[in-house]
Amino acid sequence: MFSLIIPVYNEEGLIGELAARSIKAVESFTTHYEILFINDGSTDSTLEKLIEVRKHHSGIKIIDLSKNFGHQAAFTAGLELAMGNYVAMMDGDLQDPPELLSEMYRMIKDEGYDIVSGKRKGRKGTRLRLATNLFHIFFKKIAGIDDMENSGNFSIMNRAAVNALVQMKESIRYLPGMRSYIGFRQGYIEYIRDDRMGGEPKMTLSKLVVLGADAIFSFSKFPIKVCLFLGTIGTIVFFFAGIYALVDKFFGLAILGWSSTVLSIYFLGSIQLIFLGVVGEYVYRIYKESQNRPIYLVKKFYDAENE
Predict the structure, then answer these.
(1) Which of 39, 62, 141, 187 is the most exposed place for a label (fewest CB within 10 A)?
(2) Which segments of 49-150 are extended strands (E)?
(3) Does 307 reside within a domain?
(4) Are residues 150 and 266 in the same domain?
(5) How many distinct structural domains can be found in the chain?
(6) Residues 6 or more apart from 171 whose CB is under 8 A from it?
(7) Phi first, then psi: what are they for 253, rounded to 5°?
(8) Beta strands 151-158; 115-123: pairing state
(9) The pTM is what?
(10) Which residues partner with 158 through β-bridges?
(11) Helices then strands (H, E): number in the chain?
(12) pLDDT for 126-151, tens place per residue?
């Protein structure tokens, strides 16, 4: 069986086109499939549109979450409930073309890959393009994961890779990084990412910043290295500044005043605040993991056995 996971949040205007293209794409290479739509706490008529589509296509299943848990949590729900020997993840805004699934499926079946991911070689539209590209380049450099650049959620995995991925239970999740972390033989297919067909974009600049922070603090010790570097530089600068002040004082050249003292306090205080902020981010993540709360909660699962 083949499983396709698609999280949706307030996508009532896209459901018809999304379902039609996804079904056509999947049926081009298999007739034994399930398409899992994860309704991530939508407040519009997304759920009703999904239920209507399901009446005409028994291969569609709907996981209705109890509230909006976020994109990564919605994908996690799909991964844990998918039944397929091969499992694909795709965003619900049609920026990832479902027509590529057949080639990705062929690669994983015929070329021996365990994971095949979509790698963006360009983007249509201009919204957040620069910010997104900078995020992927920056994450690749500081996380030390060379195959992560311009690779998002769009991917296909075999059952062994999926089982490895769902064993990772951290509550603050960045699935592209986790997918790269588990290893296995990974391949890529390049594509031009489409612009949204309609509706309001869900990935804002603030959400991209939060996602970037989750990715960086989960997969890199780079922030700690920055703190160490700043602390070392500050120590060296003020060591030589102290020697300079002593020499000036010894030869009677010291200039009286308070500016140097105030600037020193501000500089050291700023470094300490940076350190506290970085340490706070790690402590917060430790606290979140220690709570051991569910990553998501299912309100209702619409499939043949539960209706």
Answers:
(1) 141
(2) 60-65, 86-89, 115-123
(3) no
(4) no
(5) 2
(6) 288, 289, 291, 292, 293, 295
(7) -105, -5
(8) antiparallel
(9) 0.69
(10) 86
(11) 10, 8
(12) 555 555 555 555 555 555 555 555 66
